[in-house]
Specification:
- It is built from 18 helices and 26 strands.
- The strands form five sheets. Strands 3-2-4-1-10-9-11-14 form an eight-stranded antiparallel beta sheet, covered by helices on one side. It has a six-stranded antiparallel beta sheet with strand order 5-6-7-8-12-13, with helices on one face.
- By secondary structure, it is of the alpha/beta class.
- The chain binds 5-amino-5-deoxy-1-O-phosphono-D-mannitol.
- 5-amino-5-deoxy-1-O-phosphono-D-mannitol (M6R) binds next to α9.
Amino acid sequence: MCGIVGYVGRENCTDVLIDALSKLEYRGYDSAGIAVFENGKIRVEKAKGRLQNLDEKMNLEGRPFGNCGIGHTRWATHGEPSHINSHPHSGRRVTLVHNGIIENYMELKAFLEGKGYHFESQTDTETVAKLIDYYYQDDPLEALNKALPQVRGAYALAILFEGFPDRLYAVRKESPLIVGLGCGGENFVASDIPAILKYTNRYYLLEQDEVALVTAGQVVVTDLAGNPIEKQEQVADWDIDAAEKGGFAHFMLKEIHEQPKAFRNTISPRIRDGAIQFENGLDDVLRAAKRLHVVACGTAMHAGIVGKYLIESLARVPVDVDLASEFRYRNPILEKEDLAVIISQSGETADTLAALRLAKSQGIRTLAIVNVVGSSIAREADYVLYTWAGPEIAVASTKAYTVQLAVMYLLAFQLGRLRGQLDEAAYANYLTELMQTPEKIEKLLSQSGAIANLAVDYREAQNMFFIGRGLDYALSQEGSLKLKEISYIYSEAYAAGELKHGTISLIVEGIPVVALATQRDLLEKMISNVREVRARGAKVLLFCFEGTQVSADLANHVIYLPQGSDLFAPLLSIVPLQLFAYHIAEQRGCDVDKPRNLAKSVTVE
Ligand code: M6R
């Protein structure tokens, strides 16, 4: 999704803006631009494609020089990726960058055309720039106060006003925006913490319709009417190394390898004296909940599916799992004693946030499982369980998924215990095995080279299937998503028992089938399903626990998981599945960290 940065200070802001934008590249974008006050005038530079194109263009044409400016990476929504549609956009004396979507932009455009404005781009953003410009006499805040109430939709804006070359303005509604507090003589604006982490880890989170006036020496936050607002300084505990590749070829590979640490960080603080200790009195809520509604998107939703299998089987509490984009519009039945469990790495996904608000508006309690501290979902939910994965930069989610699973296990064990479904011994055994998981993940990570070799045999595939039963089926959905999103191989996850109800017609000679067979009580049935696809010529990559008897003709390749109980298999199988997807994509020459058309944080519907 789009990224915003802003800088005012002593440095040449062109360099700072480009550097800060480079830290947001992971979010996904298709053009970039900056606006800088140069000799009191706003100079705009833009380029389609990578940030590097903009940098090279400015090197050829002469880099803007100034101490105050804004920058943007655009992920196209209204209008194709092009020079003209790139941000910044301008009115006569106002230039801005925007994240979000303006819903009534056609209406605003007609109004402004009636006032003599001419539009260059197809974007919704240009209407906001011109609307603010229309109201801008000599007072920026007054212009914002008149213009923004007319704007419907979501926006985070960083704005330059001619006449004020030493300040920038930031304002937001729905889309996130922070103001970075520099160490004397400089300040920043950004849509995401990694953009400014090199310069400062102190920041203000802007709330709805708060306006920040940012100069080199100070930051003043007010409401639109100019009433001062006292802000609480936040400190990000992500260090700068977390946003660097640290010797790995890609962020995705680095993040796969960070999973043992992320897992420990997420579970260890919550297991004390042999029991799970959730923060904020969550136990009472868990005890009371009659039904759980897990709502999320993409990978986070897949974590919810595994959670459903765990919670229903261990705690006997019914769990519905919904895609947030469906949940919010399908008029779900929510009862007073239900608990909505909202899962999101970024904490900013537009549909997930809307689902949370829907649940709250219907009076049910909400628990957010979120990675980004202070994100919108974390702030708005009644209860939060943070996952401690650290920043996830690669678009394809890996470590964030594993720690979401970790929290699902904790929830299942705790619910099971609180509901009297798990006795003390079973509870203690589960916790012991959970705490042993990071070591097993480390063991699996050491197989990365072997999986890279194996990937050679699968990388030419055009289609692939992932099959499994029970928890294996739940997990296979994430394995399949990982492969398709980064390698562009079409893949589908199927419940193994469902194949012969239609899809088996697609199984032909040579088609790869990744078969997860870790659930021992379903093993015989699963092996029969594998034989069915083998009989039709499928090339099978089988996953099972060490010690499973596999006859030589059952699979072309086998990945063995370190011994453990069936229940924990998803936490192990996911690692080779991620590595498999990674190595295939890398060998196919794909842009692993920034797959086409995708964005890290999906802040539009
Ligand atoms: O930030 P969120 O967890 O709310 O994001 C939801 C999905 O967009 C996300 O999980 C997406 O499916 C993954 N990045 C894919 O790897």
